[in-house]
Design a protein that fits this description.
- This is Orc1-like AAA ATPase domain-containing protein.
- InterPro entries: P-loop_NTPase, TPR-like_helical_dom_sf.
- The chain is mainly alpha-helical and 817 residues long.
- The chain contains 31 helices and seven strands.
- Helix 6 links the parallel strand 3 and strand 4.
- Helix 18 runs parallel beside helix 20 and helix 23 packs antiparallel against helix 24.
- The longest helix is centred in the first third of the chain and has 36 residues.
Length: 817
């Protein structure tokens, strides 16, 4: 472990503050990179854990990706974007504290977290609808958002934030009644100048018996105006502290006093620099090293501190003849943190690394160049990072002296993180369940890392734009064409912030300069137009701006070079990602033709192109959906036989997917049965239509709880399917025909489902509402513990094998592929 020298007064002051009961206190520890802020926090946490009735929590803001991309955005004028980001980050931070507290308390907060999170997601969905981006909601309060504008939205976010904060503070007061709590937050400079940093300081001052210690680099920002907000500036070591450090570092071979003076002179007492100089002394031999020889070694170091530390690291590694470690340090310097697989990819390029990665990491740790990244409660983690001042110094040196290798490492890292995104949990594209990765904190972290590394090279921007479009359209086709999806809006915010940082890098300026005609900005504007103007819901009005939407999609294809043939210089995975992004744009292009005029043959062309691409990519789930949409189009054209053929081909894919994944996609099956019902109705076969509508309702209901708890999307699918079935019933005159139709439809539902009937849903057409089990209420979404889910589990027991009806969909008996 690194030696802890000096800082005793600051350390004892913090421990004394922690021991005392009272109001919350914030200590702001400020210093340049390498001054010892992280070591101070670690020593403070270690000694605090030894105190009676003390609890310690550790945060690393960089590790959690908090506060990235916002500049001077806080206070009463904070934008809606940063208020939402603060709400999103703060609920995760508070939830982490609660989860690691190890107690059954915090019931008020847990309930508020569930309620406010649902309210927040619902609010943004409804706001999009009110602004013309959907059709399912009626809410006069939300409609007011159009006239009240941004201020109304910001006020609603502040209200949700306040409700969550009050619940947390109340439960925290009970939790700390008989204990003291220390919270440390390292690398706080990332949030010091935005609303999240100010929220943390404000909130901490309201937490009784709690000490929050922040560590950040210097800036002019004032986080809080309170006599309980204390600033502490860490300074360089004095000559005596340098002597103390070296004497303790080499107790058996004390360096000569003149050597100590040389170290202080060349490092100016910078603690990180002193440590590196000591590492060099250890490799050369402290007992035999003269001041003159050390001066001769050090006097060739660059004058600029950052360049000096980078060169000193390389001096140390040259002294021990470890070229592989020099390469590892260079590669690791370009990461915020790394694990074995990431470092292996960086050192091995596109092939196999030349050295065992475990051995490389062990050596880096032995030379005290890297350290484990702590998780929140301080346990060891499987990730590491260079000491921050080394990382900043080496990365800056590499970018200046060998930009080609600098970009090479960033390209490999971007590739690594994008592959993590696309292969999350090895479930990609096979089911509705796999898409819940978008809400996973680790997936979000991988997305941030990919964007960060992608920003560092500019000659391959089109592949970065193509991959961003792929992530965006994956989510948009999965959810956004049917219901406004807040994730897509947040993804555009990520792109806008990242693009601003990229421009700063490309232009060499400290602040981003807006360029409205830059390709990255054009992509943002085009995707924003798509998100703002694409009509959600299953009813697509012909008078929507389909021509303008098509123009924007074609621009996106051009910006991402998706229609260019196989491009040289791209890896196989990059070629596949371009192909998949192109297939998704073709799907949306098909929509712009089909929904403007169902007879337009260009819709068939685009669907066929996307289907061929998905087949080449082995994306059966996507292919099944393209065939499903083609079947729906055939119904819209009045061609029931053609619809049946597309249904058959899509059902075969659904069957094969189930055989491979052991999971039935109830959404696909509900829609296939519904399309078959529509086609049968079109052919005049009311009996077959009733059978298929019944099976569609059955699968739409099961979709609520398999594979995940109900959400707004599953709720709307169920509303659509039952509404369509109800409309068919309404179309029949009262009498025997309607009674037979209803009896046949009900005959396809499990017998016990009659017990699940509830008060009719106002969204559904009568009289069908009384025929089917109720869907979840808004306050029953996203949870497995609700009256609805209790009913669902009982009714799901009565469901027969989902194979029932599949042969009818396929229409011919073919074995699985």
């Amino acid at each position: 472990m690194d030696l802890f020298v000096g800082r005793r007064a600051e350390l004892q002051g913090a421990l004394t503050t922690l021991r005392a009961a009272g109001d919350g206190i914030v200590q702001d520890v400020i210093g340049v990179h390498g001054i010892g802020k992280t070591m101070f926090l670690e020593r403070l946490a270690d000694e605090a854990r030894a105190l009676d009735r003390a609890q310690v929590f550790t945060f690393d803001m960089a590790r959690h990706g908090l506060g990235e991309g916002f500049f001077d955005d806080f206070g009463p004028a904070a934008t809606a974007q940063v208020l939402w980001a603060t709400f999103d980050c703060s609920r995760r931070l508070m939830r982490r504290l609660v989860d690691h507290a190890g107690t059954d308390g915090f019931n008020r907060f847990r309930l508020a977290h569930q309620q406010q999170s649902r309210l927040a997601d619902s609010f943004f969905v409804k706001t999009d609808v009110a602004l013309g981006r959907g059709s399912h909601f009626e809410d006069s309060e939300i409609v007011n958002a159009v006239s009240l504008g941004d201020e109304y939205i910001r006020q609603r976010i502040r209200e949700m934030q306040s409700a969550l904060d009050e619940a947390f503070i109340s439960d925290w007061a009970a939790y700390t009644r008989h204990r003291r709590v220390l919270i440390t937050a390292d690398t706080f400079q990332g949030v010091a100048n935005d609303e999240l940093g100010h929220w943390m300081a404000r909130t901490a001052l309201r937490l009784p018996n709690t000490l929050l210690v922040l560590a950040r680099t210097p800036s002019a920002h004032v986080l809080a105006d309170s006599d309980r907000f204390h600033k502490h500036h860490l300074t360089n070591f004095s000559p005596d502290e340098v002597h103390d450090y070296l004497a303790r570092r080499f107790p058996d071979e004390k360096p000569r006093p003149q050597v100590t003076d040389v170290v202080h002179t060349f490092t100016d007492g910078h603690p990180g620099g002193v440590k590196l100089a000591a590492d060099l002394i250890g490799e050369v031999g402290p007992a035999d090293l003269s001041a003159r020889r050390l001066r001769r070694i050090l006097e060739h170091l660059p004058a600029a501190p950052n360049e000096r530390w980078a060169e000193l690291v390389h001096l140390i590694l040259r002294a021990v003849d470890e070229p592989r470690l020099r390469e590892a340090v260079d590669a690791a310097a370009l990461t915020t943190s790394f694990d074995g697989p990431l470092l292996a990819q960086l050192l091995g390029g596109d092939g196999v690394p030349r050295h065992p990665i475990g051995d490389v990491i062990s050596k880096l740790r032995a030379y005290r160049l890297v350290k484990p990244v702590p998780v929140m409660a301080g346990e060891p983690a499987d990730r590491f990072r260079l000491h921050e001042f080394i990382r900043v110094s080496v990365a800056g040196r590499l970018r200046t002296t060998d930009k080609e290798r600098w970009q090479h490492y960033h390209r490999l890292a971007a590739q690594y993180w994008f592959e993590r995104l696309e292969r999350w949990e090895d479930e990609a594209y096979d089911s509705y369940g796999s898409w819940f990765r978008y809400e996973d904190a680790e997936w979000q972290a991988a997305k941030r890392e990919w964007l960060r590394h992608s920003s560092r090279f500019t000659e391959r921007r089109e592949i970065t734009r193509a991959r961003f479009t792929l992530v965006f359209l994956d989510a948009f086709w999965w959810w956004g064409v049917y219901l406004p999806f807040p994730f897509n809006r947040r993804l555009l915010d990520d792109w806008e912030r990242s693009a601003a940082i990229w421009r700063a890098y490309a232009q060499g300026r400290p602040l981003p300069i807006e360029e409205s005609d830059s390709p990255d900005r054009q992509l943002l504007d085009a995707l924003t137009f798509l998100l703002d103007n694409y009509p959600t819901g299953y009813i697509k009005p012909q008078d929507a701006p389909w021509d303008e939407l098509r123009d924007q999609i074609l621009l996106i294809k051009d910006l991402c070079e998706l229609d260019r043939p196989h491009r040289r210089g791209l890896s196989d995975s990059e070629q596949l990602d371009r192909a998949r992004a192109g297939a998704l744009t073709d799907v949306i292009l098909a929509h712009t033709r089909r929904f403007r005029d169902p007879a337009d043959p260009r819709a068939d062309l685009y669907y066929q192109r996307s289907l061929e691409a998905f087949d080449r990519l082995g994306s059966d789930w996507d292919a099944a959906w393209v065939l499903l949409e083609s079947a729906d189009l055939a119904v819209e054209r009045g061609r029931p036989d053609e619809a049946a053929e597309f249904v058959s081909r899509s059902a075969e894919r659904a069957r094969d997917l189930a055989a491979r994944t052991d999971e039935w996609d109830h959404e696909i099956l509900a829609n296939l049965h519904r399309i078959r019902a529509d086609a049968s109705w079109l052919s005049g076969d009311a009996r077959e239509a009733a059978i298929a509508y019944g099976r569609a309702v059955c699968h739409a209901y099961l979709f609520h709880g398999d594979p995940h708890p109900p959400d707004e999307y599953t709720r709307q699918v169920y509303i659509e399917i039952t509404t369509r079935a109800g409309q068919a019933i309404e179309a029949l005159p009262d009498g025997d025909d309607r009674d037979r139709f209803v009896a046949t439809l009900r005959g396809e539902l499990p017998p016990g489902w009659a017990a699940g009937r509830r008060t009719p849903d106002p969204h559904r057409a009568e009289p069908s509402a009384s025929l089917f089990p109720r869907g979840p209420a808004e306050d029953e979404l996203r949870t497995k513990k609700s009256p609805f889910m209790s009913e669902w589990r009982l009714l799901a027991e009565d469901v027969p094998d989902p194979m029932a009806g599949l042969k009818d969909l396929i229409g011919r008996d073919r074995p699985p592929a």
